[in-house]
Amino acid sequence: MSVLIIGLVIFLGAHSVRIVAEDWRRAQIARLGEKGWKSAYSVVSLIGLVLLVWGYGLARRDPTVLWTPPPWAPHLAAPLTALAFILFPAAYVPENHFKSLFKHPMVTAVMLWAIAHLAANGTLNALVLFGAFLVWSIVDLMAARRRDAIANVVYPPGRFSKDLICVVAGLVAWVVFALWLHGVLIGVRPFG
């Protein structure tokens, strides 16, 4: 469990710099340049991601069961993760309704992903991993909305053609991940 926790601290810590140390972040960008900052940020994030995936895999070998997920949990997890996969590209596709509605669709996607996985898993390692991501996403969303309010950010209205791009890209990625990659990378096949 310690490798998982170290990975979470590194990964979520890197992704929390803007929440807790915006002035320091700006100073580092000024010192390193945009590319230098993004490179360092990416390396630290990748190290954290590798550690948390490895740590989660280690913790799954001898799980501590906290509760038995209800039989409806996988039926809830499937549409929540599908929506999360749609919201993820919505963060990058301009002028879509998801972005104008949710403002920060990627963080909302992480929140939905975490809720889906908390519902479908009842182990301590799942609670640590998905619970940490859920708490982080809530805090990050509040911080992002506060930054938007201070900067008077207005999101443009969406266009259905842009929504279609998000939906198709998200659902194709979700199907590939749910039916194939999740089993290969995570070792669990959500649909048997």
Give keywords.
NnrU family protein; 8 helices; mainly alpha; transmembrane; 79% helix; 2 domains; 192 residues; NnrU_dom; membrane; transmembrane helix
How many DSSP H or I helices?
8
- Portion in strands: under 5%
- Calculate Rg over CA atoms: 18 Å
Q: Give the mean pLDDT.
A: 94
How do the SSEs run, as a string of H and E?
HHHHHHHH
What characteristic shape results from the CA principal axes? globular
Structural class: mainly alpha
Low-confidence stretches at least 5 residues in length (pLDDT < 50)?
Answer: none
Count all strands and give the number.
0
How many domains make up the coordinates? Answer: 2
Measured between the Cα atoms of the first and last residue, the distance is 27 Å
**Which bin fits the share of residues in helices?**
over 70%
Largest sheet: none
Structure overview:
It is a multi-pass membrane protein. This is NnrU family protein. It contains eight helices and no strands. With 192 residues, the chain is mostly helical. It folds into two domains: 1-62; 64-192, no CATH class. It starts with a helix and ends in a 6-residue tail after the last helix. The mean pLDDT is 94.
Secondary-structure blueprint of this entry?
Layout: H1 2-14, H2 17-20, H3 22-61, H4 73-90, H5 97-102, H6 105-120, H7 124-151, H8 160-186
